[in-house]
Amino acid sequence: MAREQTFFPSVGTFGDDVADAMATLLEEIGRTELREDDRVREQSLAGMREWIRQNGRIRRCRTDDRFLLRFLRVKKFSVPRACEMLEKYLTVRQTHPRWFTRLDPDAPELADVLDACCLLPIGRDPTTGRIVILGVVRNFDAQRYNSDMMIRLNMLVAEALLDEEPNQIAGFTHIFDNGSMTMAHVTCWTLDNLAGYLRSVINCVPVRLKENRFVSVPTFAAQISKYCLSFASDKLRSRIHCHSTMEELRAAVHPELLPQEYGGKGPTLKVLNARFREFLASKRKMLLELDSELEIDTKDPRESATHDDGHGGDVVADGAVGSFRQLSID
Known about the structure:
Elements: H1 16-32, H2 38-54, E1 58-60, H3 65-74, H4 79-95, H5 97-100, H6 108-115, E2 119-124, E3 131-136, H7 147-162, H8 165-170, E4 172-177, H9 183-187, H10 191-204, E5 209-215, H11 222-229, H12 234-238, E6 240-243, H13 246-252, H14 269-293, E7 295-296, E8 306-308, E9 314-316
Parallel strand pairs: 3-4, 4-5, 5-6
Antiparallel strand pairs: 1-7, 2-3, 8-9
Helix pairs in contact: 2-3, 2-4, 3-4, 4-10
């Protein structure tokens, strides 16, 4: 697998030795966790492109390697499951345009929440290869913005980072600092938005979410946390870790990853945000073009049926996907 230049290669020194070590780690993850090799990758990409070509509901869709590999990698190169997720992704984008469209990092409101450092990558963990994203809940102005803006911010960050292959391969670690959050951060979520986000977005956006860490969750937020966890699979629950103090978080996270404000050896939040804004500027064209490059006919009656594939999971059963079932290696 060719090395890909990424704006967040790893923590520490960004020299050739670090880049070589990270490239080796990513190649190992791809081979052992995702069952990825040159033959499987090319065969699976060809299968997805043919499925897209034959799918009467899909009007427009990116077919470049980088985009399709998002779905193949998150489904460990099971072509039927990757195709099913792609169709769900296209559908949820059109069902919830207020969350997915016009993801312009230069738009005044999005720029405002970005500069507040509510959600930003802080580096790449050298031991796991994962991109680490820090959410500082108190920095989100819940008096001015509602949960629609919070979800849009999440989608902007996810879409930009998923355009880089290291993030598709190694996955994501999320850290949420809930200290000093207020009731406004809870009440800005409507039940419709919360249920829609948990039921639809999390299951349709191709993110390999490997680890969630929550620190300083206030008592009044515990009930909503239980509600959110009711939508989570057992696997996802096993990847959630709660820390009552910042000291517990520092003991669990690589010290060079945490920003200086958290007692770590990383840059300050201001420096990290400036770096992230530069990265988003390089992805702005891609983000804006998603609106014109992706379209599905949500009113077309030819909806995908599913059935159990004998391995404990649902796969698309009708349409062109059936002919590619032999490509599944999940």
